[in-house]
Design a protein that fits this description.
Radius of gyration of chain B: 25 Å
InterPro entries (chain A): MalF_N (IPR035277), MetI-like (IPR000515), MetI-like_sf (IPR035906), Sugar_ABC_transporter (IPR052730)
Number of domains of chain B: 2
Largest sheet of chain A: none
Number of domains of chain A: 2
Strand order of the largest sheet of chain B: 2-1-3-12-4
Oligomer: heterodimer
CATH topology of the largest domain in chain B: D-Maltodextrin-Binding Protein, domain 2
Organism (chain A): Flaviflagellibacter deserti
Protein name (chain A): Carbohydrate ABC transporter permease
Strand content of chain A: under 5%
CATH superfamily of the largest domain in chain B: Periplasmic binding protein-like II
Radius of gyration of chain A: 29 Å
Keywords (chain A): Membrane, Transmembrane, Transmembrane helix, Transport
Number of helices of chain B: 19
CATH topology of the largest domain in chain A: MetI-like fold
CATH superfamily of the largest domain in chain A: MetI-like
Membrane topology (chain A): Multi-pass membrane protein
CATH class of the largest domain in chain A: Mainly Alpha
Helix content of chain B: 40-55%
Structural class of chain B: alpha/beta
């Protein structure tokens, strides 16, 4: 009777055991939970090491050798720090670093100011708000190859739309200046395209920041009779600052690596005026096939970006903590 | 009866299987030929139909625009890719491709098949096939002869009012220029002029920065002004040859031509941009490769009687033209080398070479070029022959890409970006090239 009732109706202990099954390690005898967890995540870790860490370490190794990818059978010689010394003392490389710095600083400054201003404006509710927000985001959705090519047409001095619009404003003839062929204007031609394409990205991040500001802060400010300007300086800007800084970080890293637009618009010209670091790197790695030299340049660029980004992230964290 | 039906079904099934596998095998037999995407490539597609008809081997083509041609195919070769069975590679690639084992050496094959390099124009054999240069080591069959030449608006040159004005101004007839000074006068004459209610410009010249454009343009003038790659008696000694005063004068001339007489927005122009400028009626003169001339002659807007052709003009120190063109090679990583060699054998045949020329390709075979009817066979045929007799090529060293990059940078810096003087640009070029050759252990 007792046995029958036990089989037909499990006791409390059995019910608890059924609800809380054995630990995995009990079922896979001989393996601890920790080991099994490692087994599950190890493929991901191996994959990450293979596609991230190994190439990085391999690049560092190659940077100390004379390896050329197009001559795999050639004798591999250790070069010590020769390539690093060559790069750091080469005026042409410094020129390209300067071009990169000018480009990064100018684009970040303009995109941040413009992006935040646009985000501030479209944060207000108005008729067609969703439509205009989508329209603003369109440039960012286009492939850089398309953007580069159509801006090349727009910049055409004789029949391009850009010259046709700007020339009357400046009181000159459209054919009298060339955006892509002039040493002074060529860097600005790339900055204009980058600003046109990527300001919407800054808008998007700033918009997220503005929408995260709680209404009660503005209500409290109004109770304190703070003017709209005062509300902007004391509530809006400080609260949105971490988001703005995040946008600056993302754009900074992206523009430091800028390649596609420059390659399509000027190929680094006229002369070497717009030869940014990534163009120099590409030429060394995939045109000259100086793999060792290019690896050294890549390591220098990586350390620069990584160092600057780290300093910046620390500053960002400090702002967040305030 | 059922057994009979089953047997019949089985037999028909087997037959279908055999037929389909035969069909698949025939379809599988194919070759991929890699080249640049331009007019002659279309002619080659047409020509190759004969090869497919004769051999049953289907031809596939991988054509890439000129601006990414070197990047794309050198990457393919350097990564030992199997995309291309045959490649029509640029003349400067031969050194690197031979030394790095990308191309199959063709000496034994030529000997076995009775293909003689004496049957091809000497300049094309040296330029496209040999490595080391001037040695009987062949890595390609000369496939597409080419050189830089010029086109001009014959209809504008024939206008009486323009001819009269030109004669008054310069004291000579408005005719095809024989020297670079004459060419510049003509370009200046047309620069900014209104013709048929449209503003036109002097000349379209090569200025492209990204690949090889400005080098392929500026060398035409440099050679004529006395530039030499190195000391003819001491290879790789460049000081005083690359950066001689004469060479600097040549570079100054090219810059003056760019500054005075090109259309606005010509800071990054190569073959396609030159064609656009000429076809749209913007320029009186156009520097471009002969490969485009058949297409230009057929152009409804500027072709026919409206267009004329002339050889690169002479300079104070000589008369040369930049070599273009390519040889056809078998890629050593291909799994279909025998079929690829069969294509080369077929392509080398005289009748195929004649058809190649008739379709718009530039044959390098003497049987075509030395034919008495050749000069009259096209309005640019004589100019092509004259040009091929005076061609010079850029370095074809394994490190050619580095040498080219340096020249692109230094010449573009001076000509387009107004940076420094011509002498400084060439001095820097010597420094760059010296460091490349030192790294290559050739100095």
């Amino acid at each position: 009777m007792t046995e029958a009732s036990t089989t037909s109706r499990p006791g409390l202990v059995e019910q608890v055991i059924r609800r809380h099954p054995d630990p995995v390690s009990v079922r896979f005898r001989g393996l601890s939970d920790r080991t099994i967890a490692w087994l599950f995540i190890s493929p991901t870790i191996v994959l990450l090491l293979a596609i991230n860490l190994f190439p990085l370490l391999w690049t560092v190794y190659l940077s100390f050798t004379n390896y050329r990818a197009n001559r795999p059978n050639a004798e591999l010689r250790g070069m010590g720090t020769t390539y690093y010394e060559q790069i750091l003392s080469d005026p042409d490389v410094w020129e390209s670093m300067q071009a990169t710095a000018h480009f990064v600083i100018a684009t970040i400054a303009i995109e941040t100011v413009l992006g935040f201003a646009i985000a501030y404006l479209i944060d207000r509710k108005f008729r067609g708000h969703a439509f205009w927000t989508t329209v603003i985001l369109i440039p960012m959705m286009l492939p850089p190859a398309v953007v580069g090519n159509f801006w090349k047409f727009l910049y055409q001095p004789q029949n391009g739309l850009f010259n046709a619009i700007v020339a009357p404003v400046l009181g000159v003839s459209p054919g009298s200046f060339q955006m892509l062929g002039d040493v002074q204007l060529a860097p600005w031609s790339i900055i204009i395209v980058d600003v046109w394409m990527w300001t919407p990205y800054v808008v998007l991040i700033c918009l997220a920041g503005l929408r995260s500001i709680p209404d009660y802060l503005y209500e409290a400010a109004e109770v304190d009779r703070a003017s709209p300007l005062r509300q902007f300086w004391s509530v809006t800007l400080p609260m949105a600052l971490p988001f703005i800084m995040l946008a600056v970080l993302f754009r900074g890293i992206e523009n430091f690596k800028m390649f596609d637009l420059v390659n399509l618009l000027t190929s680094g010209g006229p002369g070497s005026t717009t030869e940014v670091a990534s163009i120099t790197l590409k030429r060394a790695a995939f045109e000259s096939w100086r793999t060792g030299y290019a690896s050294a340049l890549a390591v220098i660029l990586f350390v620069t970006v990584f160092g600057l980004a780290n300093i910046y992230v620390k500053a960002l964290n400090r702002v967040k903590q305030r | 009866m059922k057994v009979l039906l089953r047997a019949a079904f089985a037999a028909s099934g087997m037959l279908a299987l055999c037929l389909s596998s035969n069909g698949a095998a025939a379809q599988d037999k194919s070759l991929t030929l890699c080249w640049a995407a331009w007019d002659p490539a279309n002619a080659l597609v047409e020509l190759s139909k004969d090869f497919t008809a004769k051999s049953g081997i289907a031809m596939k083509f991988e054509f890439v625009p000129w601006t990414s041609y070197a990047d794309r195919f050198l990457n393919e070769l350097n990564s030992r890719g199997k995309l291309c069975d045959l490649i029509i590679g640029d003349s400067q690639w031969v050194g690197g491709s031979a030394e790095n084992g990308h191309y199959v050496k063709l000496n034994d094959f030529f000997e076995k098949e009775g293909i003689s390099m004496n049957d091809f124009a000497p300049a094309t054999v040296v330029g496209y096939s040999e490595w080391p240069k001037n040695s009987p080591n062949y890595w390609a069959l000369p496939a597409m002869g080419d050189a830089v030449g010029w086109t001009y608006r014959k209809d504008w040159f024939e206008r009486p009012e323009l001819r009269a004005e030109f004669k008054t101004k310069y004291g000579r007839e408005l005719d095809v220029p024989k020297t670079y000074d004459e060419l510049k006068q003509i370009a200046e004459f047309f620069q900014g002029r209104m013709i048929d209610g449209k503003k036109v410009y002097g000349a379209s010249i090569y200025t492209e920065r990204g690949s090889e454009g400005i080098t392929m343009g500026v060398t035409n003038v440099l050679y004529d002004y006395g530039f030499q790659y190195d000391n003819p008696k001491k290879p790789y000694e460049m000081k005083g040859f690359v950066n001689s005063k004469d060479a600097a004068a040549g570079l100054e001339f090219y810059k003056s031509l760019y500054d005075c007489c090109t259309p606005p927005g010509s800071s990054d122009g190569y073959m396609a941009e030159g064609l656009d400028a000429f076809k749209s009626g913007q320029v009186a003169l156009q520097m471009n490769f002969f490969a485009f001339f058949p297409g230009l002659y057929k152009d409804p807007a500027v072709g026919g009687k409206r267009i004329g052709f002339f050889v690169n003009p002479a300079g104070p120190k000589g008369h040369f033209a930049q070599l273009g063109g390519q040889g056809i090679s078998v890629v050593s990583y291909s799994d279909k080398k025998q079929d690829a060699l069969a294509y080369i054998k077929w392509f080398a045949a005289t009748d195929v070479q004649k058809k190649w020329w008739s379709l718009g390709g530039y044959s390098c075979a003497k049987a075509v070029l030395d034919d008495p009817s050749f000069p009259a066979s096209a309005p640019f045929a004589q100019q092509f022959l004259d040009s091929m007799a005076i061609v010079k090529d850029f370095w074809a060293e394994p490190a050619y890409a580095q040498l080219l990059q340096a020249m692109q940078r230094r010449t573009h810096d001076y000509v387009v970006a107004d940076k420094g003087t011509a002498q400084e640009a060439l001095d820097l070029l010597v420094k760059d090239w010296t460091s490349v050759f030192e790294e290559e252990n050739k100095l």
